[in-house]
């Protein structure tokens, strides 16, 4: 179950107003993804409606909105996983690094090596910790043992779990706690050196302490990766994201800087949602 927590926009507004004005100019960031007029149907269900949304590099973009509004569908469209559902029909474009991922000649395998995904429930393979992380590089043809060891170590370090597992690399991953398993899954994702990491409610099955660890990790990872995270937890979106897109009934109501969304949103529906009036 997701933890839906209401957010107090007044408190956030006050916090922003009290911050001393800084004259730092945002460096323009390149869009990793550009979604243009995207529509998606599951059979007769129109799940995504005319979505236009840029995702910028080295940022955390949070996707928020009530249950059934299309958050997971959208994130699974970014790596074309959604097409595993037979009834899916799509129109519009998603440009990843300026190439339309729906083009006939686009290689979906390549997209999946550039875009990693972390799911709601940690899903390690029933293998050792080492094998979980080495799996992706092996599939990509890396056989050199020394290199594999290095990749595993770097990935586990990148996912802030190395210290906890370095002495038990050859034990089964199922022996790890839920929070450790989720960080292992993040390490598995890092091992293929992705460009983007998609996270679908990655902390909803975790306790507060493990949640905090993953949140800190996300902040660290955005230095090198672009991250899209679906979350039901408003405080989490406010804490860790740079941009927030509010989805409602398959539409993007608002996509803005996170501070802005949580203090002075443009649309009343955004304000109603973040202040817990519905959801
Ligand atoms: N495999 C599917 N087949 C048919 N309809 C689907 C399928 N998956 C999702 N839908 C429908 O698409 C709409 C969007 O669902 P989606 O799971 O993307 O919403 P969500 O915002 O992620 O919800 P939640 O927060 O509950 O996970 C819903 O109406 C849902 O019932």
Named at the architecture level, the CATH assignment of the domain at 57-74 and 114-274 is: 3-Layer(aba) Sandwich
* CATH classification, class level of the domain at 57-74 and 114-274: Alpha Beta
Q: How many DSSP helices?
A: 11
Structural class: alpha/beta
What overall form do the CA principal axes indicate? globular
Query: Which stretches are poorly predicted, pLDDT < 50 over at least 5 residues?
Result: 1-7, 12-24
- Based on CA atoms alone, the radius of gyration comes out at 19 Å
Listed once per kind, the bound small molecules are: adenosine-5'-triphosphate
Task: Name the CATH superfamily assignment of the domain at 57-74 and 114-274.
Answer: P-loop containing nucleotide triphosphate hydrolases
Beta-strand percentage? 15-25%
What is the ordering of alpha helices and beta strands? HEEEHEEHEHHHHEHEHEEHH
Strand order of the largest sheet: 6-7-8-3-9-10
Helix content: 25-40%
Mean pLDDT equals 90
Largest sheet: number of strands, sense, barrel closure: 6 strands, mixed
Structure description:
Keywords: ATP-binding, Nucleotide-binding, Transport. One of its GO terms (molecular function) is phosphate transmembrane transporter activity. Residues 1-29 are annotated as: Disordered. The protein has 279 residues and is of the alpha/beta class. It has a domain at 57-74 and 114-274: P-loop containing nucleotide triphosphate hydrolases (Rossmann fold). The chain has eleven helices and ten strands. The strands form two sheets. A six-stranded mixed sheet has the order 6-7-8-3-9-10, with helices on both faces. Strand 7 (196-200), helix 8 and strand 8 form a beta-alpha-beta unit. Helix 5 packs across helix 7. Adenosine-5'-triphosphate is lined by residues 42, 45, 47, 65, 67-73, 85.
């Amino acid at each position: 179950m997701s933890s839906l927590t209401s957010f107090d926009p007044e408190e956030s507004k006050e916090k922003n107003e009290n911050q001393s004005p800084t004259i730092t100019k945002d460096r323009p960031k390149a869009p990793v993804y550009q979604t243009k007029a995207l529509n998606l149907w599951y059979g007769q269900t129109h799940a995504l409606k005319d979505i236009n949304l840029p995702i910028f590099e080295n940022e955390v973009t949070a996707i928020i909105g009530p249950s059934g509004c299309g958050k997971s569908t959208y994130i699974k469209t970014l790596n074309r996983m959604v097409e595993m559902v037979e009834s899916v029909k799509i129109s519009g474009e998603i440009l990843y690094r300026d190439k339309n991922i729906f083009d006939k000649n686009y290689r979906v395998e390549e997209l999946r090596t550039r875009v990693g995904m972390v799911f709601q429930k940690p899903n390690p393979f029933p293998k050792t910790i080492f094998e979980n992380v080495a799996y992706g590089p092996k599939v990509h043809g890396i056989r050199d043992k020394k290199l594999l060891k290095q990749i595993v170590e770097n990935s586990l370090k990148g996912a802030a779990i190395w210290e906890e597992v370095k002495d038990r690399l050859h034990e089964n991953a199922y022996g790890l706690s839920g929070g450790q398993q989720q960080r292992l899954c993040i390490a598995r994702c890092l091992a293929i050196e992705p460009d983007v990491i998609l996270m679908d409610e990655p902390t909803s099955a975790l306790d507060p302490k493990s949640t905090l660890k993953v949140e800190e990790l996300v902040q660290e990872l955005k230095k090198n990766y672009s991250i899209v995270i679906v979350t039901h937890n408003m405080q989490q979106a406010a804490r860790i994201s740079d941009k927030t897109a509010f989805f409602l009934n398959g539409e993007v109501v608002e996509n803005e800087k996170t501070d802005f969304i949580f203090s002075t949103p443009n649309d009343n529906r955004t304000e109603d949602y973040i202040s817990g009036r519905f959801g």
